[in-house]
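Hello Y.,

Per our agreement to keep a running log of every chain we model this quarter, I'm adding this entry. I've kept the format consistent with earlier entries: sequence first, then predicted structure.
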Amino acid sequence: MQLSTKHLLGIRDLKSSDIQLILDTASQFKEVLQRPIKKVPTLRDVTIVNLFFENSTRTRISFELAEKRLSADTINFTASASSVSKGESLLDTVNNILSMKVDMVVMRHSASGAPHFLAKHIPAAIVNAGDGINEHPTQALLDAFSISEKLGTLQGKKIAIIGDIMHSRVALSNIYLLKKMGAEVTVAGPPTLIPKYMKDAFDINVEYDLKKVLEWCDVANVLRIQLERQNQVLFSSLREYSLAYGVNKKLLDSLNKEIIIMHPGPINRGVELDSDVADSKQSIILQQVENGVAVRMAVLYLLAGGGANQN
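Predicted structure for the entry above:
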């Protein structure tokens, strides 16, 4: 089986069968990562450039590791240390890189739609590693993989996405994916951080009471407050936010059930999550990081035309 698309620009463009294929393939690669020798020769003749115009630690390292595990040749590009800082355009930068015979571009950019623009102008396969406040598809895929691994399925599960919904590309990709795979979704947070159109546009629930949404859900995916994307004051202070929407141990212990805690990182400890929650047995945050490598291996493998068994 192969993906129905040449690029991974967003979850919105994927069919549910594409999502399932990526998750199934990631499961096979996770087995590979448990072996003493974690490397496979699958992409030995493929050259991938990691094109990061925006700061990243986890996503970038995860992609780099996935590429190395697949034996691909990789080039790492950072905008601040390149000719972009001298005024070179995005298209010129990429065309210069492609003239070096690159097969695939993993791209993170602060402008929404930047990977889609590139996909129209260059022949290489594009993987969106996060574009502005639009989408972050591989994060949603690894979140889905982590939930499925824990609960067996996404179908019918109740997933709460809590926090800064307005500025979160993770939230958008997760909503698209969870809806396509049959999960129930509720977004929760301060009214100023949840766009008014969310409920009707995505056919999801909106909740402003944290305790109520935690009592409802099977999984709470807690998002980081993205102060760097906010150009106006949307809540009084981080302390006030933490008091109203921070997830702490006392709150979790007051529930009549045990729920799964997730976070895409980096965590603002003491703001959206207390340390005793982030590090608790209910948290699968470190599993998310681990699963990210397997999921990104699956995406790269499938976009490179993989269909045969990778053993």
